Amino acid sequence: MISQDELSHEWTDDCSKPRDNHWIPTRTERTSLGEYNQLSLQDSLEASASDTTQLFPMFETKLYKRRWVMLFVFGAYSMSNAFMWLQYSIISNIFMRFYNISTLGIDWLSMIFFLTYIPLILPVMWLLDNRGMRDVLVVGSAFNCIGAWIKTGTAHPSMYAMTFFGQFVCSVATVYILGIPSRLASLWFGQQEVSTACSIGVLGNQMGIAIGFLIPPILVPNVDDLDELAHHIRIMFYISAGVATIIFILVIIVFQEKPEIPPTQAQAQARNIPPEEYSYTASILRLLRNKPFMLLVVSYGLNVGCFYAVSTLLNRMIIEHYPGEEVNAGRIGLTIVIAGMVGSLICGIWLDKTKTYKQTTLAIYILSLIGMLVYAFTLNLGHLWLVFIMAGLLGFFMTGYLPLGFEFAVELTYPESEGTSSGLLNCSAQIFGIIFTISQGKIIDKWGTLAGNIFLCIFLLIGAVMTGFIKSDLRRQKANLQVEVQTASKKSAEVEGGVSPPETLNERKF
Question: Cα-Cα-Cα-Cα dihedral of 257, 258, 260, 261, to 10°?
């Protein structure tokens, strides 16, 4: 006879290890316990109503109000770093004249963020899995702060190399950011708010991009005198360094790794898994063999890479058709990001309520393609107000896609680490970001902005088709059935004891 403790430990071990060719458990904390096959569930209830309670021990869970503080601190750090990324490119014509550099030289001040991410993401994911989220955020915010202070001494025409080095140090901090939202949401938030929390975590980055579009054209006007221009640039650098310092202190004092009591049953079960049973290398290899996830990695990279290219080259595209409109170029970028922030939040709430990950991701991808096409053909019509409207539509869908990719990836790869799957997605985005930014820049220089934007549309079409071929792993249904049986049998026992009957179960869509 096997004891209850042995059965519970056996089930916990099973959930921590991917199975060979039978089934892989799904990310149950993100479901409403509604993924099941009706007939199989009924049969299983009749056969094993008494056994499942033993197999699935219930743990204490709790939601802490300070989870929102953790989310705010992370969002502030992400915002500061995203501002560093765009503070050069949105006024690229001014910095090109100030440092006497080419368009490629100014583009690399943004693209260094993409390039740095690629070799560093694997060691940082290892650090995230082995040292935890707090250590990663402390180190990342330190890099962000140091890079910002390096740049305060570069407001001189001869200091391009040093400002590039400061930007490189800030770019290292980005590697410690982009894989955090889904992990933070899982560790701190309940099952019915985890997608919303992930979206809010992404909003911090988008808010930084919005500020990066808005503030530099205001702080650094296009004046002829280089000494006056250096003064304005220095003010911008000192402000960004001061903010980065405050955020670094906040991360050290306020941020916690995880709550004392887990927010969901799945997180409670995960805490019972011995650390020695997890292999980082094996996890990476399993993800690389996961065909649906690899399709998502490429399609996500295509979409977000296009967004990076548009953001980096926005000033050049606007100035080509509307000379002297540096401030409005920043406002157009702000419109893209604010609309995208709204889209991200709406998509997160939608996912929490419907769990329709593939359908929502595909729909937003197709709408991003349509938005890019409309933006491409209206940019050169000479109506700036029309550019604002089309840019807003483009941003709503293209930026709104960002948290969808994270959440869909976790659904496809559970029980692998959220940080690992998010890291691979972002690595793909950085690779395509470099390729698209360089290629579109060359196309714009030779054939104009319309050709450059059509170039991006072609790859968005490819990504939309690839998204349509992503299939959810049917083996997850069996794992969901196990949890469903346990929940239903537990409620059946409550009914027999005079407790109210179980609620109707909702079927999840894929």
Answer: -170
Q: What token pair was written down for 156?
A: 């001189």
Which residue matches tokens 């959220």?
418
- CA–CA separation, 48 and 34 (whole Å): 19
Two tokens at 313? Answer: 């080259």
Residue closest to 140 by CA, chosen among 185, 182, 178: 178
pTM across the whole model: 0.65
> Which distant-in-sequence residues (6+ apart) come within 8 Å of 420 by Cβ?
125, 128, 129, 179, 280, 283, 284, 287, 413
DSSP class per residue in 160-228: HHHHHHHHHHHHHHHHTTTTHHHHHHHHHS-TTTHHHHHHHHHHHHHHHHHHHHHHHHHHS---S-HHH
In this structure, the dihedral spanned by the alpha carbons of residues 29, 31, 32 and 35, taken in order and rounded to 10 degrees, is -130
Yes or no: say if 48 and 174 are a contact pair by the CB < 8 Å rule: no
Dist. CA 249–CA 237, nearest whole Å: 19
User: Using CB atoms within 10 A of its CB, is residue 437 exposed (0-12), middle (13-18) or buried (19+)?
Assistant: buried
Measured CA to CA, the distance from residue 205 to residue 341 in angstroms comes to 10
434 φ/ψ sector (left φ>0, alpha ψ -120 to 50, else beta):
alpha
Task: Find, among 131, 218, 108, 128, the residue nearest to 175 by Cα.
Answer: 128
**What is the pLDDT tens value at each position of the chain, 510 positions in all?**
444 444 444 444 444 444 444 444 444 343 333 333 333 434 443 444 344 444 445 666 777 788 888 888 888 888 999 888 888 888 888 899 999 988 888 888 888 988 888 888 888 888 877 788 888 889 999 999 999 999 999 999 999 999 999 999 999 988 888 778 877 887 788 777 777 787 787 778 878 888 888 888 889 888 888 899 999 999 999 999 999 999 999 999 988 877 777 766 666 666 666 555 556 677 788 888 888 889 999 999 999 899 888 888 888 888 888 887 777 887 888 888 888 878 877 877 887 777 787 888 888 889 989 989 988 888 888 788 888 888 888 888 887 787 778 778 878 887 777 667 777 888 888 889 889 988 998 898 889 888 989 999 999 999 999 988 887 654 443 444 455 455 555 555 555 555 444 443 333 333
